[in-house]
Please model this.
Amino acid sequence: MADNARVTSASDLASLAALLADHTRAAICLALLDGRAWTAGELAAHAGVAPSTATEHLHRLIDGGLLVECRQGRHRYVQLAGPSVAHLIEDLSARTEPRPDPARGLRAVTASAALRRGRTCYDHLAGRLGVAVTDAMTGVGLLDQIGGFAVTTTGLAWLTDTLGLSPEELRSGA
Model:
């Protein structure tokens, strides 16, 4: 029975990996890391595919549990199924060696550089800026990364006294 459970688990993992192994589906998931809900047409344009192709990929991602569909009137939007999916995609992305995109004009190069420096994902700062802020706060003793990214006593004092945040705001994530 234990062998059967491992086979099922391995099969499930392979199915999940297959969802993200396609370039178009990966591009769609990466675009949705911004936390917004997008239409199939917007995602098709972003991924550089026909709307019908994007729709087919979206159905696979929804069926696989990575995306959810939201309807507003006659419009349909899709978004990541939740923060855990966003974390999964970010974790997988962090394990890849970034390859620079070929330059397609000054505007594209500038926008790409800005996104790499600082972007947001759901409710947190990400990208190089997010890593730099986290490292700087850890370096001066405001964060404890060893204990699970906890705010230290010094960090709490700095956030409340210097920045004027209330402890209640910090606890609620506001």
